Batch of 3 targets.
Target 1
Amino acid sequence: MVLPGGCRNQQAGRLALLEGVLNVTTGVPSGKWLSAGGPVLRAEADDTLVTGDLRSPKVLEVSWGHMKVEGIGEGKDFKLYPGGGREWDWDETRTGHSPGIQSADVEELLAHGAEVVVLSRGMYRRLQVDPRTLEFLAARSVAVQVAEMREAVRIYNDLADRAPVAELFHSTC
């Protein structure tokens, strides 16, 4: 079988897209890297191919009310996680400065494989973190760091190349 991009598989098989993950039931050796005409893929022991770049995008610039994120663009507040991110809309979970970041705000980060979560409290530390959120993360053995915005960016960017890290960024107060 020849995959798009010219990669040849040793056995005939089938390709299926299951919940956004390319599953190949063809006996690709575990740990083998393939290019399928797009992102680099790695074969797992269960024949699942995963993207080779699940690195968390770095924050390139930050100032009051403005952020620029690698591969995503510009905005005010962001949810970043292994393999991507998006703008953070507080209205989705009715987040406010108090009680602050809620469990519902971090669930998406965990769904993208985060093992470390950095929570920004904003430039003036006005954004709170609901204690139940910290309990939620601890119950799932997720390491968490809470910091002022600029310090949170430093921590997050430092971890982005080394760990499956996610962040909630609030770039104002």
Note: The longest helix spans residues 149-160.
Target 2
Amino acid sequence: MKSSHKRYLSRNKSNRNQRLRYKASMMAAHAKERGIAWQLTPEDIIEMWTKQQGKCAYSGKKMYLAVGNGLLWRNWTVSIDRLDPAGYYALPILRFRSSACCT
């Protein structure tokens, strides 16, 4: 593998992790606003993404970490799903799903 390709992959993974950390902070704030306990770290979120390989738990389709202008991007942005809707946000009762799967 060329060193330039390795650098690109390294930057790409770093960018992904930054976006996941940001997503985690936004989800934590949203949970707090709704009075739901949040017991996850950004590392937990990164681990969940890695285990699911960036794919929706329901459809198996690739999800995106950024919202674009098109409908496709909005439909496949990542969201978090609690297996027990009355529960709190903690592992292992969570999984990622695409926005399209919650409509």
Note: Residues 4-10 have pLDDT under 50 and may be disordered.
Target 3
Amino acid sequence: MRPWQETVAAAGLLALFFGLALGSLRQESPTVDEFAHLPAGYYYLKTGDFSLYSKNPPLIKMIAALPWLILKPAYEPSIFQYPTDLRPWRYGTTFMRRNQARYADLFFWGRIPIVILAVLLGLLIGPGRAGYTDRPAHSSACFASACAPTFWLIPAWPPWTWARAFSFAPRSGPACIYSSG
């Protein structure tokens, strides 16, 4: 396959992914994690207090909740009324009840940043793929999720891409650390 054909195929697959993902956002109900994560992200953005759901890092939750800063859903500013071990889930229940009329719309808009991050990851991995065709199968595409690797690649990928373009870097990129070979 010629490089321009690979580029067209990759762009087509990314566009297909984006369309399918965007189309499914309204059809799927909030998952058990989203039920707690998105309200927690909004709480973090509004209060700066990260104690609501401290088992996971807050950055992705906050990014997902960014559209809610414009939509301004009702939220409970005090979380201390909830027991510590169930706090995220009780807070999610309160959030759902306070925003019942537009709950599905809020989650639609809260999912869009995650789809954008996934497409961004595809764009970041795509240009680096061309130099790896002579390598083993486990190369730059071995990522388990779309969010954390995206933020890892944003600062790390450009130096490798530029270094390889000027031929003073090895032919394996930063993602090769996930390789078993």
Note: Residues 3-136 form one domain.
